[in-house]
Amino acid sequence: MSSALAQAPPAPTLAPSAPSSAAAGSSTPGNLQIVNTQSKDQWLASKLKGMTVVGSDDQKIGSVVDILFDKTGQVRAFVVGVGGLLGLGAKQVAIEMTAFREVPAANGNSDQLKVLSTKDQLADAAEFKPFPEPATTTGAAPSGSRPAGSPARQQRQ
Question: Between 3.40.50.1100, 2.30.30.240, 3.30.365.10, 2.30.40.10, what CATH number should domain 2-15+39-123 receive?
């Protein structure tokens, strides 16, 4: 079986393709680029989220829980939930998108992503820490409010 795998052509990577000005399925009203159809080498984030990730030993590592983009819109990494039971206690590890290979659906399995690591190696990897959201404030308290624990004012009649 390993000799057959060695002779098989490499699976396509998920690297985004460069847009072409003459791409089928796109139109340009004004300066806005509209994409009308998805091509076979493009993926939707909704399909990727939840997709099973397997390791170099073909054992399930976890699943894609999020996708990290940079400001230019390029995908930087897939965030994979590693370990835990039914998502509880799972650690999130962000792996660069270029490290993944597509494993097409076969033998009743759906499409999967494969990385050249094992579950144990990713369990030892540093946990992904998202950038903290800034604290939001609601502004000043409405008039007539009082601090917690202070006695209520009696109204004069």
Answer: 2.30.30.240
